Structures are given as C-alpha cells and as structure tokens.
Amino acid sequence: MSKDTTRPIPAFIDLGAQREKMGDGLAKALIAVLESGQYVLGPQVTEIEQQLAAFCGAKHCISCANGTDALLLALMAEGIGAGDAVFVPAFTFVATAEVAVLVGATPVFVDVRRDTFNMDTDSLEGAIGVANANGLKPRAIIAVDLFGQPADYARINEIAEAHGLVVIDDAAQSFGAALNGKKVGTLGAYTATSFYPSKPLGGYGDGGAIFTDNDAKAELLLSLRNHGKGPGQKETEEIGLNSRLDSFQAVVLLEKLKLFPAEIAARQVAADRYSARLGAAAKVPELMAGASSVWAQYTIVTDRRDALATACRQAGVPTAIHYTSALHKLTPYREFPTAPDGLPQAEWLSERVISLPMHGYLSEAGQDTVIDTVLGALGSGAGSVAAE
After folding, report:
1. Engineering a disulfide at 151: which of 35, 58, 143, 366 sits with its beta carbon 3.0 to 4.6 angstroms away?
2. CA 85 to chain CA centroid, nearest Å
3. pLDDT for 226-253, tens place per residue?
4. Do 174 and 33 fall into the same domain?
5. Residue positions annotated with a catalytic role
6. What is the CATH classification number for the domain harbouring 314?
C-alpha cells in the first residue's frame, strides 16, 4: 500500500482548535453566568476590563458592545461633530470612516504606505491642509493598525500635537502588539479595539473596548456606553448609546486571555515561516523598526492576485482580500475630501493584496500546503512587486 502523503488544508482562522485548548474551563464559566442571572455588565465585565488594562499597561479599560462603538464612543467623548474633520486612512475597514459620519463630522481620507499598510504621515499633513482649506476644523486622527502592526505613532503624535488633534488608535486588529516597548492600548489618547470572533483576541460574538489614561474621559465613557448614565448616577446626564458588554462575552475573553500570549508567539513563528518561504514570489509584510505585530492577517502583495486566488480555491486553501476597494471609492464616501496628492497607494494595494491562513494553531504541515500552493501559482519571483 502506498504511503498517504496528503497534508491538511488549514482553516483561515481555526477557532475549533482554540476551543479544544481551553478545555472545560469555559463551559464552567458560562454556567456560572447563567446561574448568577447577571447577563449584562456583570462582575466578569469588570474583571476583564481590569485584566485587559493590566495586560497592555493602560490606566482604564471601558468595555462596550463592539469595536465600531469603541471608535464612536471615543469621538463622542471628545465632542466631535458637525464642521469637524477626522483624518482616516483610505485603506482599511469601513467602520473607521463610518463613525466620523455618524457623529456628523467629515472624514478626510489619508493615503497609506505600501510597506506597512498604515497611514502615511506626509499624506496626513497634506490632508490637514485640505481640511483647513475647506473650512473644516481639524479635530482627530484615527490611525489604524492594519493587519496587526501599530502605525507610526511617534510621528502621528508629533503632528497631532502641532495641530491640536486627538489621536485615536484603531486597534481592532492589533491588540497585543507593541511599538518601541509600549503596548497597543497606550499609544494614543484613546485606543479602540474589537473582540469580534476573528480577531486575535476575540469572543464568541460582538464586543469591544476603549483604553485611556485620562480619568475624566474614562468616567465619561462609562456613562456614554450606558445611555448617558454613569455608575452611581441617579439620572441620565449625557446623550449616550446602548453599548454594554454581555457577561457571556466577558467570560469568553477571560478564558481566551489566558492563551493569548502563547498564541501571539505562535502567530509570529507562522509569520516568519511565511516570510522566509514566500519573499521571492510576492511582497511579504514588513515591520517597522521597534514594532511587533499580532498578525491579525498575513497579507501578501502580488500583481497576479486573481491567478493566485484561483489556484488556492482549486487547492482548497482559504484566502481573503482585505480590502477590495479603497474607502474613497465606495459609493457613500466618494464626496468626502482626500489628501492633496490623492490616494494612489491605497488604490494600488486594494488591487493586489491577498491574505493567507493565519492563527495560533497553524501547523507546519498545513502551512506548507499554503506555501506550496502559493509558490505553485506564482513561481519564484513571478509575483514580486516594488515596495515603493
């Protein structure tokens, strides 16, 4: 009988393997919530907030219903609204721009870098000039840490200070990463993250959190997430949201947080293997000096994306494209201002990026299946593109 040489096809994100790793601790914790009857903002919510703040070194963690609300609440805490400009990268998930519109402000789109996928600070400075020329008041920068790597906060914070802007770190994909010895959660005035199931630290439903070191803003956020009624307040004092975290999601996060450091390390091992094997065939991700990533996505860039996607589909290898369009090309956002030199890198990347399976339980055999499929489709050097 011939030897079976088949190799496993990896899941894009293997939540099942993670569930097995947790054992029966999660089930016991969920039953405890059922028996307590405290299903929203129970004691487990306070506990996960404390543990998340301690994990990243932030003074305050305020949980909420989802990552979009986390961004929205930060803008609300700053009183940002009509006539204000919020600077957002053009290559990211739509929620980053969506929240600016929801508070009545104007998103101004900023280009990104090909090497890190994150906000280009030269484009940011140009966009501030555009906002001023259009009679808008520059108020906030939402800097996205795309695919798991922090943006260039040293320079972003310098620009913000020079122009009197607040910096909000959209860390929906980067919680657990660090820059120059500081963890995500402490790099901007506010950090907003998501606990959507596919995130590096995800629940089994929606959830989010805001991190800040500002005591007064933390107290305000506690009120804003609960219809404008803060802890101990008898009456509603602000116009807020219904954005409270369920106790069930809190216990899921408490259990997953125990595994999180090991998963981050495993993701880095997988990323290193990808980069070592695929660098000659496609443009692989680059980290800034002093930065770490949690590799929410492992995204490569190739001029032959369609051919690669077809080959992966035929081989049963899952892939995803984040994102197929720059935000300023989407119908609801076409009329908003952009940086003066346009957004060529965001457009260029949206035509060439493709993400490969990445999670903390990716086996070498499964990863080899992905690598061999990519190399078979692109060949050595066939899909290479310029970094800049």
Report:
1. 143
2. 22
3. 999 988 888 898 999 999 999 999 999 9
4. yes
5. 199
6. 3.90.1150.10
